[in-house]
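Can anyone check this?
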Amino acid sequence: MRTTFVLITVMALILGTSACEFLDPARPTIQPDTEVFGNVLDVEEMPDEPGVWTVRLRVAPPRALDKAESEQGRKGPDAEQGLTAEIRIDGDSVVLRDGRPARLEDFNPGSEVVSIPATGTTRMVGEKTVLHNAEFFGDFGTYSRWRLPGLEAEEVPVVDDVSSVNSSGSEHAAVPLNGGRTLYFSGRLRHSVAGEIAGAVRQGLRPAEGQEFLPERSFRTELREDGWTTPDLVVFPGLEHALQVSVSWVDPEETVCLVTVRSGQEEQPWAGRSQRQNRGKAWGPVEALEGLGEGDSFDPVYLAGSRTKVLFGTTRQGANQSDLFLLNPSEGGEAMALEPRINTIGSEWGGRVGPDNELFFCRSDRQLLFMGGMVQTVYLDWPHRVLFSEAAPSDDGRWVFITMTQLRPGAPDLDLWVSERREDGTLAFPVPVDEWRP
């Protein structure tokens, strides 16, 4: 059983470390980074460092490992007497319980937990104390469903409801209209484990036979008194067999939209525009936007108040990294890369523009905001880091729709949540879009 072998190896590294001899037992010595499994002893917020906690653990293998080993007639690793871990957790640590963001007070003494260290932070003091800064801290159930699927036999299969917005697949890239009460979003199934596919099998999402990549489509739903309507597929003529057809911008009257199209696995994505007479009519053909220049283009949006200035993503500058470009026809010439404060050696993507032309965008897996000439990280009102991206403000600026990442085996589960944007610009802790009622 591979999952059992992984845990045995990890525990052997931790327990074996304690047998080393050190010249100065009181001096922390650098150790290889590895997950720490154990039971919570206590949690303390550091009095001289607000927003920083120390969690003490009794290092021990989880009960599920002992059970799995016993069922196979083997004996798992024993907890070494007196071995403890002191885990430093701050605002940049991801803390999860039951798969969702949690506070440290949600973990009672004795809770089985796992801590994954930030790179290069593992040390040992003497022979009995492991130290590290946590990148991830959570209950063992969350960890095992993510990294060790199948270890816990009581896992319940997910039954997805196509009438809901979120599912066990990927729902992301929100385009909110009408104060958030009308919502376009992109959806696709996701690869799970052992070749399985997860998610709500909506119209247009079932992959063709032999197709490696899963199709992505856009859907539209409205919030009414009894909740969201069943999401409807957004249809464009001639693109029924395209691999990706994703809406990234829609005008308030829903008569013009911008779309990313990728015809096949070997084709580059391109940005286009579609029109219709009114929201009751069918969308017309998607026509490629002119003036975007050579190379791929995706996620096009118009700047606030404009129907000519187009912001979009592209990888044309190489190194498999995406950057944000702007086409401004009034200044002539081709589309140009945004300034170095925005485009860096990292990957910038997911550009969305607010009502005051503030720019929300992502750099790698971090959500950022460019406003007032400054780039700043976007945080939620929460003591620890929350995994989210693709922030998209409503047209009135009051709400921000975000894509939340849930850690699952295979590809992550992406869901849409909604946060209130306060007067000071901070974002309240969000709620799942299916539960949101403004």
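Reply from J.R.: I decoded it. The CA atoms of residues 419 and 430 lie 4 Å apart.
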